[in-house]
């Protein structure tokens, strides 16, 4: 009657002979009968005590079942307090051994029994076990409804402990066909970690998720995927390093060393399931994987998984855009640009323009000189959208267009074209500054372009605005300010900016600023102070290298920061070589050059410095060889072009035409190079063209007055 009231339909392993009480049903299951005649015929007097004991246990169990059913009714009505009082009256602790035994016996080799096979006496039916497990689960739900999450999680643990102890190898097949054991267990598996999270006990939640994945529990593939995804997200965003599991789960081929590794392993498994159509597409999986692989710098692996996403999930433009982001982050800008060019190809003309792809293309092109013209095309397509393009995107497009025009001007060999491109660059950057006043990048690039064009007053104003936006903490901001001040011959102010920035700058910025300070010392003719600054700089680099060597147990991939530090060390040795050459200390100069070449043998500046050392010693042929080696490594290296022309001029009048061609080439590449103009004036004077020489000397003088201690770009 209680079963009928509850609305539950139970299947019986052995159909009852008559509609009797729950106690009668349990006796029937145990191979007994409540009928007096049958009782007397099946049992001898010696078995009366055993039967009496069984009867008492059965009646006790039916009392517990009745409370379970009554508690369910109260829970369904939303009376959590009443349901909890009813459930607390069930002696789960006392029934636990019998429940474990019943699960073991009833799930062992689930084959049809022959007539001679009897179920062991005093073993609960699976329906009784299911009913009791449901009572525990509903007790947990009631506690959850009352806001007592920790107690609710502990109740779920009771279910998991009972079933896991009875089934140490996982849930056998076919259990769900006969009873609700599997259903109750699965609900407890899913509920427990959520309860721990609500209670703020994330370590316990992670342990619960791992427990659900440790053995095969016949979870539905989609539910199993949800558990794996939830565990991965908690490991990624939990904000703490959880202890690693002592026992390796079935899905882990190798032991992960950290939360991130475990999360990535889970997400890679889920992506594989998605690829093979074992589970439905879930955007959260690729989003979590994108975050995890981005943080760990595995961008190419991330690109591989975007490529494996089934067609139809993303549009072609979105897929190309995501892949381009991955390859750009990995440093493969050319590959990224090739993908982005597909977005604006003729095959996509009928589709709506994908603005993020166009802006990304313009941004990548703005980072170097060789793709300047492509960058102009990308940015123009965004601007041509007019009012349909959001204001912020339009501002960014104007910024990138201005940068790309400036880069294109530096590549131009025509003076008229260069002047036009430089004017367009400033126009678009100023337009971007008007519509994007809060974007510090616009102000930085506007300051840089004005500085390159020697509009020093405007450059300084924009640089100060950029400094205010960045609160003066940007290393490149301080470097740009220093170079602008040095262009105005304000060397003391420039050094003050460097000293101020050294205390706040990051490690790499600090090293670069120290080198800039040493260059300023050389310009101010303070060689000994410059050498001391270089010594401090090299000491810091060496100390950091020793620390990394001690803490590193294995060879690690060279990061971009490590590469920048390596390049900086090369520059320091090259600077010292040139400084010692000026001081006439040839042995020290050669030692410094050997150090630089030992780090990177094929550096054009190292061979240029070698040529200058030879030239200072009047070894002109050796100097020409060194300059030639420098130009073979980088044909457009302007200092070596100018130095080659200078040596040719010293070799005699027969070399003057060749020297002139070198100088003109240098000015086509770098029109503001005052040394090229000065040597062109000397050459014209040697040829007897005094008026022309005077003009060249005047240009060299004016450019020298506005020349920074180092090139702006």
TrEMBL record:
SMART domains hit by this protein: TPR (SM00028)
- TPR repeat locations: 604-637, 674-707
Q: What is this protein called?
A: Protein NPGR1
Pfam families given in the database record: TPR_16
Q: Which Gene3D superfamilies match?
A: Tetratricopeptide repeat domain
| Transmembrane domains' residue ranges | none
Which UniProt keywords are given for this protein, alphabetically ordered?
A: TPR repeat
Cross-referenced SUPFAM superfamilies, in alphabetical order? HCP-like, TPR-like
Q: Which organism's genome codes for this protein?
A: Rhodamnia argentea
